Amino acid sequence: MELEMKWLDQINEEIKNNGPTIAYEKEQWEKPSIYKVPSQVTELNKNAFKPQAISFGPYHYGEENLKLMEKHKHRALLHFLKRCGKPVELLFQRLNQVAKELKDSYKSLDPIWTNNTPKFIEMMILDGCFILEILKVNYESEILVDYDKNDHVFGEHGKLHLTPYIKRDMLILENQIPMTVLHILTKFETNVEEEDHRESLKEKIIKFLDPWPSRIIKNTSLFKTKIIRLGKCTHLLDLYRKSMIQENASHTTPSLRPPMRNLLNCEEPDEDYIIRSARELQEAGVRFKKSDSRSLKDVSFNRGVLRLPAVKLDDSTKYIFLNLIAFERLHVGAGNEVTSFICFMDTIIDTAQDVPFLSRSGILINALGNDKLVAKLFNSLAKEISMDRNGELDMVMTNMKYYCEKPWKSWRASLIQTYFRNPWAMVSLVAAFFLFALTIIQTIYTVGQFYQKDC
Predict the structure, then answer these.
(1) Tens digits of per-residue pLDDT, 331-384?
(2) What does pTM read for this prediction?
(3) What is the pLDDT of residues 86-127, one digit of tens each?
(4) Angle at 86 between CA 81 and CA 91, to 5 degrees
(5) 410, 286 in Cβ contact below 8 A?
(6) CA 185 to CA 201: how far, in whole Å?
(7) CB 151 within 8 A of CB 158
């Protein structure tokens, strides 16, 4: 009874103090940008949200399988300070000035960090310096004089055998540090104002994490412009996501869109609004073409042509998309673009039979092995996620639906597929028409002769 009274008193006291206010609750939603993924999500893919080689930030700090990299973080800090020629105390002081902001970036931070600011700052410095050193040894060859070429982390040996795992861990949602840390460290090293080095840092990060390492940026000025348009980013995963959905400046979005329901569940679509698979779309006369850009938002449907961005599929694809989807799910205001794209792809890739239609068009670049694995990948990514029916993909699906409802489109597609894509079938068709024409002529001639005899 006493416990009940305490609870009642607490509620009455909070109401009396006019709490909680909208402004206070809004602040609680807006501050965090790094989250622990809920158990109902991690249960579906347990290994996708855990770092395999190195920890960044507090959530996985001290885990047994990640401890080995702590000494290399320490080495990175020593190299960083030696190159700067500045005392570590000054660096600590600068990060300590924003300690509260850094802590607020984490949702549900353990008391071991909230109550121990020096330890928290130490972790931020070590993790941030390691990231900057990894970026340097991959894109600034002169830095290699600081490390032996056979260094297992920062040398050529590390680039070959360890860097792929570090890249993977940099894109884990639970394994992030605020971008503020990297900006402060870069300014500390270069004495350049934050605004001047911010875009350069973004450029290095995107090039490092780019899943298309063979891509050559031919237009440097255009690339730098795209970097500037990314805007403020909270951490590496956020930066990577924005680079994936960034549209070209010339991209335009049609303004007219028929009203629809708010959400389309990927696993249980509305019976009146079923999106066909790629094979069925092709049978209905839809053609597939690769979009002009790699942006996941560059999806369009016009005059029977569905344009989709090229997507490279390999062993890293699944964990990258799962963490991007988790970030969109947990971070208020992040958007739903990646989730909607995956949901859309799941609707048109139902089985392995749908994959070749997209692969032949250069939309799917399959490094997984076979088409069955590709179908399984998209089907698994789309579990328990929903598409934003107020987004641009809603209009694309609506146009596809209306197009496929016209029966003559299917007849035309069937005719082309059956007779005009096979030269021998085309010859047979022409021959058949020729014989049919001769038969009609012969019939007319015979009937004409019959009437002439009667006359």
Answers:
(1) 988 999 999 999 999 999 999 999 999 999 999 999 998 999 999 999 999 988
(2) 0.82
(3) 999 999 999 999 999 999 999 989 999 999 999 999 999 999
(4) 80
(5) no
(6) 11
(7) yes
Identity (one letter) of the amino acid at 136?
K
β-bridge mates for residue 306, sequence order: 288, 301
State how far the Cα of 268 lies from the Cα of 324, in Å rounded to an integer. Answer: 22
How does 20-42 read in b/e, with b if 16+ C-beta sit within 10 Å?
A: eeeeeeeeeeeebbbbbbeeebb
Separation between Cα atoms, residue 75 and residue 154, nearest integer Å = 10
> What Å distances lie between residue 358 and 1, 292, 363, CA to CA?
66, 15, 5
Six token digits for residue 443: 């019939």
CA dist., res. 392 & res. 396, Å (int): 7
- Partner residues linked to 331 by β-bridges: none
Q: Are 275 and 397 in contact (CB under 8 A)?
A: yes
The rounded distance, in Å, linking the Cα atoms of 210 and 236 is 12
| Residue whose C-alpha is closest to residue 337's, from 295, 383, 290 | 295
Q: Which residue has the tokens 């569905």?
A: 306
Which tokens hold the place of 14? Answer: 């909070």
Give yes or no for a cis peptide into 254 (omega within 30° of 0): no
Lookup: tokens for 106: 């984490």
Which residue type is seen at 215?
A: R
The CA-atom distances, in angstroms, between 185 and each of 84, 92, 127, 133, 217 are 10, 10, 11, 11, 27
Cβ neighbours around 152 below 10 Å, total: 12
Sign of CA dihedral 308, 274, 352, 368: positive
φ, ψ of residue 176 to 5 degrees: the values are -110, 155
* C-alpha atoms less than 13 angstroms from C-alpha of 165 in its C-beta half-sphere: 14
